[in-house]
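Could someone model zinc ion with this protein?
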Amino acid sequence: MVTDPSCIFCKVIAGELPSSRIYEDDRTIAFMDINPGSHGHALVIPRSHATDLHSIDADDLAAVTATAQKVAGLAVEHLGADGVNLLNCAGADAWQTVFHFHMHVIPRYAGQPEKDPLVLPWQPAPGDPDRIAQAAAAYRGEGADA
Ligand code: 5GP
Ligand code: ZN
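Reply:
Sure, complex below.
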């Protein structure tokens, strides 16, 4: 089990910082986010410290995902959510601010802006097919992206 004494989520795990826990098992802990984006916004973390998506152990990632699925189900069953978003931010440029891997579980409520003021952060519009194919080729290692 890896611990980083300077990490606030490791301090939450150790009980050195308070948290409203909602679920825990041998690999993961779920607790409430103190700056909720919607009513019931929760975080799921691995007990073992990993900075982000790129460095988390694959078994811990699977365990976090399974816990996020449980918490999402509880959001629907117990909080009356109409839907749920899962969000992970990998890197400061992708909005990550706490560098201990975490999955956001964000309950969504139809027509209740006081519980759920969230909007889609991009404008869906058809992309340039050449640019899409170029990115796909770059994923496959078949050419540099630009
Ligand atoms: P990120 O921006 O890294 O994806 O998400 C970090 C989340 O952790 C934010 O939503 C933020 O509100 C939450 N957070 C930051 N500090 C604390 C804390 O001390 N306790 C709890 N429960 N949540 C925190
Ligand atoms: Zn940590």
